[in-house]
UniProtKB/TrEMBL annotation:
InterPro entries: Acyl_CoA_acyltransferase (IPR016181), GNAT_dom (IPR000182). This is GNAT family N-acetyltransferase. PROSITE patterns: GNAT. Residues 7-168 form the N-acetyltransferase domain. Coiled coil: none annotated. Signal peptide: none annotated. Pfam families: Acetyltransf_1.
Length: 172
């Protein structure tokens, strides 16, 4: 019997919530073990996941039938991004990438890069020109991915958890 390893990017469903929450808990612990302050203050939490799914912000990358990566995609709405110490590349419509979390079962397999490829295709299909994202100064894994995927460092934004590095990629 062959294993189905088809990779699919799809909207998260409420039935996915428990698996997604487990993946986020793994990511929170991974950040802690890395010595990071990111995600160490009770956010994101289970209610965050429920809210993402209810608002159609939640997306998953599956390998076969298993959820490998979770992400929240939010169109044109990140109040913190209205003030940046620096400058965004564009002023039009955009998608914000938040809460990227990889399952321990799939860590180190390059799936976040595949996720970013899927996000870019999805965003282009919606005729949105730009993707914006922020991350903690000490999240070296995400900083490397953003560099590898061609995101431009634009400055710093203040979120509830403190100052974050902000990036943008123009697609169209």
């Amino acid at each position: 019997m062959t294993q189905n390893n088809t990779i699919v990017f799809r909207k998260a469903e409420i039935v996915d919530k428990d698996v997604i929450w487990k993946i986020i808990q793994q990511a929170i612990e991974r950040r802690r073990l890395d010595g990071s302050t990111q995600w160490q203050n009770g956010y994101p939490n289970e209610q965050t996941v429920e809210s993402d799914i209810a608002k159609n912000f939640g997306f998953v990358l599956t390998v076969g039938e298993k959820i490998a990566v979770y992400v929240a995609l939010i169109f044109n709405d990140e109040p913190a991004y209205s003030t940046i110490d620096g400058a965004w590349l564009t002023t039009g419509e955009f998608v914000v990438i938040h809460r990227v979390a990889v399952s321990e079962d799939f860590a180190g397999q390059g799936l976040v890069k595949k996720l970013f490829d899927s996000i870019e295709e999805f965003v282009k299909s919606k005729n949105v020109a730009s993707i914006k994202v922020d991350t903690n100064f000490d999240n070296t894994a995400m900083l490397k991915i953003l560099e590898a995927k061609g995101y431009t460092y634009c400055g710093e934004v203040l979120l509830n958890s403190g100052m974050r590095k902000a990036f943008e990629k123009v697609l169209i």
